[in-house]
UniProtKB/TrEMBL annotation, chain A:
It holds the Pfam family MtrB_PioB. This is Putative beta-barrel porin MtrB/PioB. Keywords: Signal. It comes from the Bacteria.
TrEMBL record, chain B:
This is Cytochrome c553. One of its GO terms (molecular function) is heme binding. Residues 1-18 form the signal peptide. Its main location: periplasm. Heme c 2 binds at C138, C141, H142, M193. It comes from Tahibacter aquaticus. Heme c 1 binds at C43, C46, H47, M86.
Amino acid sequence: MPTLPLAPLTLALLLALPMAVRADSGVGVDSVRANKLDPSAGVAGAPADARGTSWLRPGQSRSPSGNLYECPLLPPSLQQAGEWEYDGHVQVGYLSAFGDDDNALWNRYVAWDSGLVLGLLEIALRRPADGSYADVRASRISSDDAFFDAAFGRAGSYKVQAFLRELPNVVSSNTRSIWNGVGSNELTLLPGLTPGGSSSADVAAVASGLPNRRLSVVRSKTGLGVDAYLDSRWSVYGHVSEEQRRGARPFGGAFFYNFLFPGNAGALETLKPVNDSTINLDAGLRFAGARWRMDFAYTGSFYRDSDRSFRFESPFALTPTRPGARSAPIYQGQFALEPDNDYHNLRGSLTRRLPWNGELSLTASAGRMSQDDELIAPIDCQGTFGVDTAGTGVSGPNNPFLYNCADWNTPAALSRRSADLRIDTALFDGRFSVQPSSAWLLRGGLKFEREDYRNTYLAYNPLTGDYGYIAENGAMASILPGVVGTWNPLTSPSAITRVRSLPLDEQTATANAGADWRLAARTTLGLTVQREQQEQSNRERRRVDRDSVRLSFVDRSLDWLTVRANYSWIEQGGSRYESNPYEFLYSSSLPGFVPPAGGVPAFTVDALRKYDLSDRREHKFDLKTTLALGAQTSLSAGLRGDWNDYGAEIGRQAYDRNGIDLQWEWQPSAATRGSIYYGFERARLRIANVADVAFGPDGSLGGPDYPTQARWWAYDKQRSRSAGASLDHDFGPLRLDANWNLTDTRGLTSYRFNAPDALAYFADGLDGAREGAFPLMRYRVDSLTVGLSFPLSSRFSLRVFDNFERGRIQDWHYLGLEQARVIDHRVYSDGGPQSYTSNLIGLLLDIRL
Amino acid sequence: MKWTIALASLLFAAQAGAQMVDLRAADAVGGDAAAGAAKVAVCVACHGPGGNAVVPAFPALAAQHAGYLYQSLAGFQRRADPASPMTAQVKDLSDTDLRNIAAYFAAQPRSAAATAVAGEAGARLFRQGDARRGIPPCQGCHGVAGQGHPLRGSAPRYDYYPALAQQQSAYLVARLAQYRDGKLADSSNALIMRGVAHNLDDAAIRSLADWLAAMPR
């Protein structure tokens, strides 16, 4: 009698066929839609099926690696309606939020609101005669948090899906804006404040009288997708989605450094408008045959911002450093917003089966990223900017540090009107694997990636002959006479400023080979060696080499124990390290540049090694074990470590991370499920640096510009704990679910330095100490949810739940903002993250349709 | 406190059991074929001598697997469906009788000649299924020639999957329609068949039954 050893498995797969062949490309228009009220998208509340995972074999409760499968859900009992069968239910109810219910962290990605909610509407239709189906899902839990999801199709033939999704991101709940127009691209000072003419006390008085307001960005996403089988081997798909983002978030606003110039300048936290959208396209053709598989795909992404720039007013007057002179009355600031940009990518891949149960796969792709947005003028002022030394208010040879805005506030002041920048990408990836015997698997691969920057931008003003860009909205030039931020061969031939964009062309070639050796039936040892060579233009190293060896071990020889262990050794080196490959970006590279007295200052200290390019040796280890404790319980434990030593005297010197996690899963029956989790991770980062005490040409460490006494070191310690416990149980008609979660992160950065020369600011208050630490950073959130569900009748059931959450936040960056948002000429709009204690009670009625 | 603990214990213990015979971990069915022979006088009146039925509506029992036969008989007892003619036949039989009868018919050769009609549609459904309509191929559980589960003999549960080749066509039509319409759902194997047959229409059932009836054992 012929036998098919895998017949049960085959059947199990085929039983799942109606789901698997729903003509779904897997590329997806978007991910599964859910919300914070039910992150599982309805799965968590569904009753479990006591009959187990498979009718074919008993006791299929664990994965091959020993983890417990979750009990499968009870399939819906479909109701008949002519040729169609259907199942549907709707969950409606009321949520009541109280406590610190306006807190931004508590509301992040949800915006809880007391009131009526549509928890979930779910309708499923099936027509067995031809495999047709239709599904609708919808939810609305607050004004900005809702989704609608619909799909229809025929099994094995086609699928059409569409969705709408609104998701809020609450970024602040304690913003006080001294501007009108938040959310628009025009921030104008509130009545009572004079642009460029208010004192710190004036601004503080206005700010202190303002109520806290919420800032959020709402994402609205719409998508449509079609997947279809042309025949049993060819399929096509096409998806399009658009995400629109609307709102505002805290941002910057520069009118030069207030720290260096007390009572002067202006450092403003403005509120940037978010009013943009991204359209994503995916389309492809696939072939899946017995020997060949092919995939040809196009991916496109198109970003569009409704605003090209945003403007804001500074309330503060500027004062020149030269006694007797007067600053031009400038107050208008601006930022260019993210440019509209396009991305196209074409990809083709071929896969063919090889003898010895092998496979060869080749992929090639080419892409293009481009932007050609119209550029904004370097400054947005009227009249003049700079320092009026003559007292006439008129620029000219007798008033050399006062400049006409008309020479800079127009696109004519740019070397070209639009960005016209492009990056072309290319990729080739080849992989193979063969199994010459049951004990051996051999594999290897070659990969080549390349990015080419096309075109660069030269900051040149044809109206004035200046190179560079006006710094800080003209504020720097209005405080420091003659320091505009530009270079001119006639008027400022020694000014050093950035004049060109930086192209970062790069190509990476990677080769790897490896083998897996089956030592015993359920024990495997693996080895992979890899060489990666990265070549790049305009970086400190032209070539970076990364060699790695990875050993892996998997053992399942004991039925109750699975062990997985990996160790990797990675060594990074490369060509000679050059501290300043950026000379060509600066005015010092232009003809006519006259070195300043004392020479061109060193770009940075020679001993600096940037961490992505410096020599590095890494050891990485992880061990994972899963113990099957009887049929109902499993215990998993993980241990991991990652140690990095950098060959840098200045820069990052070491970065180590270690962690453990433990998980206990208990599932004595379909009616009961419990779990406990604990995770711990710590990280240590060591950085060494040196301050420049003079702008001299000597970049040597210990030299006159970077002396030993100016050296400083930082040591950053991060510790993160997370824990959780959950229990679900069916008490007959009553169902209880309880979840507790803890996230606790602490960070402490300590420092030491040789002498006060190491400090940029704040030499005061040191009391002779040469070491110390910043205050502790802490983020801890405890959350407890308890819910009860019980049926009222065969069609109605009720769910009552309470979610209590407490957040404890310490962030020294925001210290003092509770008392004052305006400190000297610095304005802080966002009060920062706040601790909170909040509660959410919900009563939800579930109705079977 | 004691009251709370007692109530909680009671609630935890009160798990409703599913009304279904789970064949996934069932034991092998043993029986005394000779003893069974003494009990089959009534059976052969309809199912033919040695279980080789000639009336199309009555299933052939000869050479059927003992596990499947035993579970079928036990099912008639369990369901006690007054509309079924089998209910009266099995109600006074002991469990041992059922096992012995099963052993007897399993040991009989299938002697009747296969019918000559064999449509390609039935063969295709049996061997390949119809992915477009969500119908899996039958051969995964019933063997490439309909002789029974390919893994029969490796574990007792595979003895509960019936041989289908050379079975009576009308009987197969009736049985598949029962699975499709959810009228048989009291064993784990019946639940497998419920899902498999769910998308079979009458024409598909007919073509499958005709092809299986024509397949020689």
